[in-house]
Amino acid sequence: MHYDLIIIGLGLSGLMAAKKAVEMGKKTLIIGKGTGSLCLFSNTIDVLGNLPEGMKMANGLPLWIKDHPEHPYSRLDWEKIEQALSSFRSIFQSQYPFQLVDHENCLIPTGAGTYRPAYLIPSTMIAGTSLKHGKVLIVGFKGFKDFYADYTAGQLKCRGIVIPLSEFQGQEMIATAIARLMERESFREALGREVKKQMDGESRIGFPALLGIRDPLSVKTDLEETIGVEVFEIPILPPSIPGMRIFRHFKEWLIQRGVTFLLGHSVLKADLNGKRCESIEVSHPPLSQSYSADRFILATGRFIGGGLKADEEKIFEPLFNLPVLQPGSRDHWFANSFFNGHPIHQAGILTDSSFRPVDQKGEQLLDNVWIAGSILAGHDCIQEKSREGIEISTGYWAAKHALGT
Fold first, then answer.
1. How far apart are CA 55 and CA 12, in angstroms?
2. Rounded to an integer, what distance in angstroms lies between the CA atom of residue 317 and that of residue 160?
3. Does residue 103 surpass a pLDDT of 80?
4. Which residues make Cβ contacts (< 8 Å) with residue 370, sequence separation at least 6?
5. Which region, left, alpha or beta, applies to residue 385 given φ > 0 means left and ψ of -120 to 50 means alpha?
6. Residue 5: which of 238, 254, 222 has the closest Cα?
7. What does the longest C-alpha to C-alpha distance in the chain come to?
8. pLDDT tens digits along 326-379
9. Which helix (H) or strand (E) holds 6?
10. How far apart (Å, rounded) are the C-alpha atoms in residues 348 and 351?
């Protein structure tokens, strides 16, 4: 089967590329063996978390780009990044809105009792951005091992309570099970009543980020009506329920508009003819099937998504065999201190200004393949707190360049 565009990778960069393509009326296929890190780590949309506190993104990011010419953002500018972020927000406006706070990073609480900067905040978390104003109660669930309310509350200098859930007696309590339970009206009504009974003048209630998968706004609203104060979510350990919400809604939106999904399938190889990719071979056990396209986008991520692999000597890209920018030897992959930036996190594929892959001399390697997302070289999204911003903006613009606009 032939497509206008085939996207390899189901993370945010692949999804954004598919969104742009389908909006342009292109026949699009997106393939992935999993959802990558989206359902593991994504809670908020981080663009550049290491800007000075209080600095507007529109002012700080251009200055930062100027000082980091090797970064994926350097192939764009703030206006283009903002356009991509706006495109992302547009599909979540009704069901799961992402909000800006004064067009700058703001601090949200985490399950570790710390604060972290984020740029776009889900509406379920927005009431947690100003915890210094008013009394706060942190709610946890007895037996749920991924969130300790008393510890979190102690670090945040507020009060915590732990509520037993009879629905899990004798069963392991996991995040997805609690999130699905939250979608039962009778459960959240009983939970709200129990929380209200234990309140002591608090004006806001913090829950672990488990307020349902399908319709978290309704869960939040119902709890607020029962309890009588604002409710907010606190990001916790993987898996990320907010990340699952993003993927689920994004996938449904794309399918409704005609994008073909192949979820749970590995790409075995790319068939190249000179500098052009003609097709890819996809695993359909016990067989395989070939899919051809005019253009391809590689958005497979780094090591978690399998976009990059490593042996004892080097890091390599397994599908197109593209050269990987990396330290000269394995001895230099890691810094001496665990908390310092490790050079291995800068490894990735070099591209030109249009996100086509190039070698270290700048020579274009493939004519109809574009690269997007965290597989790009020249960034450390963990240290920078920039992963979602990189994925959203490069996925959007790689598709735009690939499709000739």
1. 26
2. 47
3. yes
4. 295, 296, 297, 298, 351, 354, 355, 356, 398, 399, 401, 402
5. left
6. 254
7. 71
8. 988 777 778 777 767 787 888 999 999 999 999 999 999 999 999 999 999 999
9. strand 2-8
10. 10
Confirm if 137 and 159 have CB atoms less than 8 A apart: yes
Q: Which of 3, 9, 4, 2 shows the shortest CA–CA distance to 320? A: 9
Q: Which H or E run includes 276?
A: strand 276-284
Q: May I ask the CATH class of domain 2-96+244-308+365-371+382-402? A: alpha beta
Residues 6+ apart with CB under 8 A from 106: 117, 118, 121, 129
Q: What is the DSSP letter of 304?
A: T
Question: Nearest-CA neighbor of 294 among 397, 355, 357, 367?
Answer: 367
Reference 367, options 319, 296, 267; nearest CA is 296
Q: Give the number of C-alpha atoms closer than 13 A to the C-alpha of residue 103, restricted to the C-beta side.
A: 9
CATH of domain 126-234: 3.40.50
- DSSP labels, 101-123: BTTB-EEEE-TTS-EEEESBEET
pLDDT at 27: 98
Q: Check: CB of residue 96 under 8 Å from CB of residue 248.
A: no
Q: Output the CA torsion 221→247→126→213 (10° steps).
A: 30
Q: Where are the domains of the chain?
A: 2-96+244-308+365-371+382-402, 126-234
DSSP, residue by residue, 16-44: HHHHHHHHTT--EEEEESS-TTHHHH-SS
Query: Which amino acid appears at position 279 of this protein?
Result: S
Q: Which 3 state secondary structure label does DSSP give 256?
A: helix
The C-alpha atoms of residue 132 and residue 222 are separated, in whole angstroms, by 25
Tell me if 354 sits within 8 A of 287, measured CB to CB. no
Q: Which residues pair with 288 in a beta bridge?
A: 283
**Tens of pLDDT, residues 370-386:** 999 999 999 999 899 99
- Separation CA 88–CA 80 (nearest Å): 13
Show the tokens assigned to 144.
Answer: 């749920």
Count CB atoms within 10 A of the CB of residue 6. Answer: 28
